[in-house]
Design a protein that fits this description.
Layout lengths: L3 H10 L4 H8 L3 H8 L9 H13 L2 E4 L8 E4 L3
Antiparallel strand pairs: 1-2
Helix pairs in contact: 2-3, 2-4
Length: 79
């Protein structure tokens, strides 16, 4: 499951505005803002979370799962 912080970090790493993510994912800007807020993506429809994930992964983001050493994060694919 994605976290709000991962979405914000992923958007930052690809230098996208909230509107750019909204356009790329086919969602509204208020939906993106809500997913990035304290409410987080857990309160969004599963298909909306998938749409955000796919849009960001298509832009080169790799989502890193939490493990025993560190929390969840993001990385950028090599070009």
């Amino acid at each position: 499951m994605l976290t709000a912080a991962q979405i914000r970090a992923a958007r930052a790493i690809v230098d996208w505005s909230g509107m750019q993510l909204a356009t790329a994912s086919g969602l509204s800007l208020p939906t993106i803002r809500r997913m990035e807020s304290d409410k987080g993506p857990g309160r969004s429809a599963a298909e909306n979370v998938v749409a955000v994930r796919v849009a960001l992964e298509s832009a080169g983001v790799i989502f890193v799962a939490e493990d025993a050493v560190a929390g969840p994060g993001v990385r950028l694919k090599r070009s």
